Hints:
The complex is a heterodimer of chains A (255) and B (265).
Chain A: E1 4-14, E2 19-30, E3 35-39, H1 46-54, E4 61-66, E5 69-70, E6 78-81, H2 93-97, H3 99-103, H4 109-121, H5 137-149, E7 155-159, H6 167-183, E8 187-192, H7 195-201, E9 204-208, E10 215-220, H8 230-233, H9 239-252
Parallel strand pairs in A: 3-8, 3-9, 6-7, 7-8
Antiparallel strand pairs in A: 1-2, 1-4, 4-5, 9-10
Helix pairs in contact in A: 5-6, 7-9
Chain B: H1 8-44, H2 50-53, H3 56-69, H4 71-103, H5 105-120, H6 127-134, H7 138-162, H8 166-174, H9 179-217, H10 222-231, H11 235-263
Amino acid sequence: MGKLTLNNVSMTYHTLHNETKTLEDINIKVDDGEFVVLVGPSGCGKSTLLSIIAGLITPTSGEIYLDDKILSYPCNKIGYMFQKDTLFEWRSIYKNITLGLEIRKEMTKENIEFANTLIEKYGLSSFKNYYPSQLSGGMRQRVALIRTLVLNPEILLLDEPFSALDYHTRLLVSDEIYKIIKAEGKTALMVTHDIAEAISLADRIIVLSSRPAKIKKEFNIKLSIEDRTPLTSRNAPEFKDYFNLIWKELDKYDK
Amino acid sequence: MINNTPSKEHLDYISRVKRRNTLITLTRILILIIFIAQWEITARLKIVDPFLVSQPSRIVNTFFKLMQEGHLLRHTYVTCIETIIGFISGTIIGTLIAIILWLSDFINKVLEPYLVVLNALPKIALGPILIFWVGNGQPAIIIIALTISLIVTIISVLTGFNDVDEDMIKLVKTFGANKYQVLRYVVLPHSLPTIISTLKINVGLSWVGVIVGEFLVAKEGLGFLIVFGGQVAQLDMVMLSIIILSIIAYIMYAIVSKIESIYIK
Lengths: 255, 265
């Protein structure tokens, strides 16, 4: 078994008028250090899946394993990154980054030191006392990632983390975030509906069908390119082939 | 951008803006002077009856007379204290109730129609009942002031609480935060601007409550002075009280605005 395993996870939402089946028998295995991207039509329940893994929602049925053990919540091995950076405007950058430690009452000397190391390493030292509104969108998203990494999670869940940025920033930030995640040796599970972005980042892409989401297909992304980063990936000869394959997969289920 | 050698156009622009601002201030002062002058003159020439509308010079005389008797400061002080206690307690108690309603969705849903009805009710109508309950004195005045601001506070602070970005709450939950931590780290700091702006609204409401309360029961205070002045046909006293009232109300509002600008950048 892998790092993170989802076993027959299903989810049904209830309202007084009807019930909506959102996820149906989702089986996913993510290996240690792997970068897996979930692609699917919008509204198919990708974000729901991440919320379930993060323990924010309880699935209707199915189990989730972390290192072959059933995941219990609250789980401090999982970090979550949102579409918006959700930085707290009333806290300085430093206080934003240590927010998780404060909430977990883990403001120990070692942890604060670790936070400072990360701040230093990823070029945020001179912005420690700034407030979020003084930072650019890309910089804010970097702070949001460091805020998550400070808690030293083993798995990162990324819920369309770049979609709120403009195209240019988006390419740069995805490159940057990818490098940080790889440098810190984290396992990542990301959700997006941008096919190109998915190929540029993923070791493996899982295509979901429209609601109720089922796994339609998996692609192992192998690019014949040296020093692969999200930016260089886009130049790989296989890039457009994967694009077309995934495009066709998605296309089928919109009809 | 700060430029060391501002261009001529920029200097022109600055002096244009400054000139306009000076003109606005001068016009404001001029209006006040003209208003007071025409009041004094028409009263002296008996175009208007000074017995009915009073007269600036008589108001000034009354001011010095009351100051000499030593009561005026006391009346002003009493009203100020009642108002301050009214709007601060209204804001604090209202916020506390809003916190309870936020913590328990069930209580919130149960109380919703009652809050709507209470909000629609003109709270002044409760005055006589409150006097009957807490007695004919200062507590009744303060409670009237508090009742006026309480429901509005609950409703607007609660709206502020529910305005918080869901993702922020989700985020701290992934950090393992419980409901009280969500309140402390996200909801309360996020709603601080709402709470302070409610405080600002409550200053005005509290004045209404206190003056009406004093009309009903008081033996001292500016509201009392207004009613008393009316009863003994001393319009000078009434006018003087109203002028003092508007100056102090303005000062109080300015202080709260200042606090607001410190906390909300």
